[in-house]
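chain below, 94 aa
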Amino acid sequence: MSKIVTANLLATGTVVFLGADETWVKDVDKAVVFEDAESAEGGLAVGLRDAERAIVVDPFLTEKAPAGDGKSGMTLRDTIRAFGPTIKFGPDAV
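prediction:
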């Protein structure tokens, strides 16, 4: 079981992940990976604390694949949150 904590920054809506030193990072590969339920709940507690402090909204735990294949162990929703849309869009979407 490898879990990470994810949320959205309140000020911008940007998807973020709980990183080292209880900071929020945009890069999923810099997220702290929790290997057991107890430490994962501790990470979620940090997210909930920061939600109360109006830093992030909707913190939750999600699956994280082992290093080297960040997408394979994540749900489609969390893959899109971490890596962006699954289709091209905008002016370059020809």
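Strands lie at 3-9, 15-18, 24-25, 56-63. The first strand starts at residue 3 and ends at 9.
thats it, cya
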